[in-house]
Each structure stands twice: as C-alpha cells, then as structure tokens.
Specification:
202 residues, 6-stranded antiparallel beta sheet, Chalcone_isomerase, 7 helices, Chalcone isomerase domain-containing protein, signal
C-alpha cells in the first residue's frame, strides 16, 4: 500500500537520527579523552553498550529525563529516550538521545528530510545544509525494526553516534549538533508534544 505523502514525510522525519553519521573511512575523528578511549576499547571487544552505559561515558550520574513514542496515525515509528546528568537537560551540556525504531526504513530521502527539519527550525545557511546533506547521503544506513541509534552531545558540543551500542562516528561541528538535536529538542520542533515528553514536562 502506498502511503500518503504527508504520512511518508512524518515517517521519514523519524529516521533523521541516523542521517549524519561519519564513518571511520576518513570522516570519524579519533577520540582522545580517557573516557572516550574506554568506549573505543569496549567497541573493539565487540561488547555493545546499553543506553545508560553510553551516557555514563560522557556525563556524571546520568538519569533519564523523559521518554516518548512517535506515532503517526496507526503507525508506530520509534521510541525515544533522553538522558542527562542528574536527569536535568541543558542544551549546552552533555546529553544523550536514544531512538529505538519500530519499523524498517531506508532511502536517500531521509537525508533530504533531515535537512528540511533543520531548515524549519531556523537554520538557513544553505551552503552548510548542503554540506550536511552530502555527508548524510553518503553514509545513511538502512534501519531495521528493533534497531537502536543513540546520539550524544559531549561537553565540547561534539556529536557522537552509536548503532546497536557500538560507536560508529563523530562530528565535531558544534553548529551541526545544535541543529541536529534541535529536530527533537528545539522549541520550533515539528513534534512539540514529543519535545515536552522528552524534557519531562508532560
């Protein structure tokens, strides 16, 4: 059954979390801090990290701030969870956002939709958006039902991505991190109810 364009657009929005991963092929930055090195060691040992274990690599006393499910009509899209130090989220400090997908997704259109969402919340630098689009398009993976993607904003506002508990890439562009996580946490998000749930306001 072919989905209506509006529904498909909302579903594509759900996948934006996977869109901007830098792979190790020339893009991922080498992690240098002792804490981050311990994460790399775990990855080498092929030991997937849980959401809270990932969070603990970047913040002290991580606690869940809020949880939400994105549902479009009768389609469940993903379950989201936000963690921060002491359970108190601040956009300029470390936090982690987890998405567990409830459907299979794939396609280059996800990258385009992600850029659209960033543009809608106020990012208008088309040169930069085009750069991010090319990065997203070149690395965007297929996502299967039940898979998890976790994004982390560290204390330096660098962004790190984990797929199924394993570190897959990092982006040090501070403006990217604020724009990307703003898809869910900015006041201009297209999903204001979800934002309130993630921030523990509902």
């Amino acid at each position: 059954m072919k989905l209506p364009k509006k529904i498909l657009s909302s579903m594509l929005f759900a996948l934006s979390f996977t869109s901007v991963i830098y792979t190790a092929v020339g893009h991922a930055k080498t992690l240098e801090t002792p804490t981050q090195l311990s994460v790399s060691t775990a990855a080498v040992d092929n030991t997937p990290l849980t959401f809270m274990q990932i969070s603990a690599q970047y913040m002290q006393n991580p606690k869940v701030v809020g949880e939400a499910r994105l549902k479009v009509m009768f389609w469940n899209i993903y379950d989201a969870k936000l963690s921060a130090a002491n359970g108190e989220w601040k956009k300029d400090t470390s936090f982690a956002l987890s998405l567990t997908y409830l459907r299979d997704f794939d396609g280059e259109e996800i990258a385009s939709r992600s850029v659209d969402e960033m543009r809608d919340i106020g990012y208008k630098d088309e040169v930069l958006l085009a750069k991010w689009f090319e990065q997203m398009r070149s690395v965007f993976p297929n996502v299967k039902e039940g898979e998890n993607i976790t994004g982390v904003m560290d204390e330096n506002q660098h962004t790190h991505f984990y797929h199924e508990g394993e570190l897959v890439g990092s982006i040090e562009d501070k403006s990217f991190g604020q724009s990307f996580f703003g898809i869910w946490l900015n006041e201009k998000t297209s999903e204001p109810k979800m934002r309130k749930q993630l921030l523990g306001l509902l």
